[in-house]
Amino acid sequence: MKSTDKRGDIIQAALELIAEKGFHGAPMSEISAKAGVAAGTIYRYFENKEVLINELHQELEKKITEHLQKDYPVSQPLRERFLFLLRELLRYFIKNPLHFRYMEQYFNSPYGISLHRERLLSKHDNHDIVMDIFDQGIEQQIFKELPKAVLFSLAFGSMIILMRDHILGFFTLDDFLIKQVSEACWDAVKR
Amino acid sequence: MKSTDKRGDIIQAALELIAEKGFHGAPMSEISAKAGVAAGTIYRYFENKEVLINELHQELEKKITEHLQKDYPVSQPLRERFLFLLRELLRYFIKNPLHFRYMEQYFNSPYGISLHRERLLSKHDNHDIVMDIFDQGIEQQIFKELPKAVLFSLAFGSMIILMRDHILGFFTLDDFLIKQVSEACWDAVKR
DNA sequence: TTTCCAAGAATGAACGTTCACTCATTTTAA
DNA sequence: TTAAAATGAGTGAACGTTCATTCTTGGAAA
Description:
Two copies of one chain form a homodimer. By secondary structure, chain A is mostly helical.
């Protein structure tokens, strides 16, 4: 059974290698080998390694956004929507640890930092489920009186390290623990 | 005025380059150039790059520990000691952003992960100010009923991202904000 | 005090390796 | 038959590290 979706094979191989070994531990030669494709073939689908890295990030982000939008309790109180987001993000990453490891790498690279900067500082109009929650929490004075970026770090900073340590096997985030830590994050941002 | 402490020059150059550009963005050739030393000279003081990276980490950790121990309010209630630690850690890193950036790189590398694993899982007897607080918070039932590693992530995860975003200029952690975010971290772990 | 020299310190060109990327050639498929 | 797709050996740049050579220095000898 030979795959005909070479682009998909390359993306998948890159995801696995980069998530496990980092950008510098994933040479194009290994990516092509893992994808079952010649070295030069990658360059028919991606202009260079940087483009491959960015397109892979975009695909993952799309999948994550889709997961979060599914069953999102639009009309429930802010607290329930906040907890839903944290819980589902944790669940998504627990089910897809490679996606988390990749996003973490990306987040800690120049690519990710400039994207983060854009998101926090520029006023792009396309409303984001996550940003909406923070805007509302501030406006309705449910959250502490702190800059949005600070509230954001308070809530998601913990979550990132928690996911990291779950994947590293320091503890196991089961449904009960997910509930507890989501509520702890809520405690951190709520007034 | 020529420095005679070549080892110190090399360590300092490595700190600056690695903090700014990461392990892979800091070739030995650039480190030696910045230190005002020939390429081969580094190898008189450090067996190889990995050893240099680890010794630099140890020096930074020593400085940070010394800062935290200074004026540590041993006999004050747990809450005050917890807030002291967070506040002083934030202050230290604000004063020494390169140290933070380096520690972050290290933390996100295989070296840092295996060290983290050792610290969390092995029972090394040398009591650490930080670990003591968590042990006591759990024992005295002041903290939420969660694994120590989870409480740890809840408190320090936020802090790491906050520092990162402060250094990236997304907001400015002044004394007032430091107080607010330290208390928010307390809210996250306290019952 | 001056001269000399041995040994440690420092040098930087060179080496082997690895990497991202190219392109002449071959394979595929319509 | 032919154009697009795929191949993989080849290229040059960059890297960590080595080592034959040069420089420095402090004490012994004159």
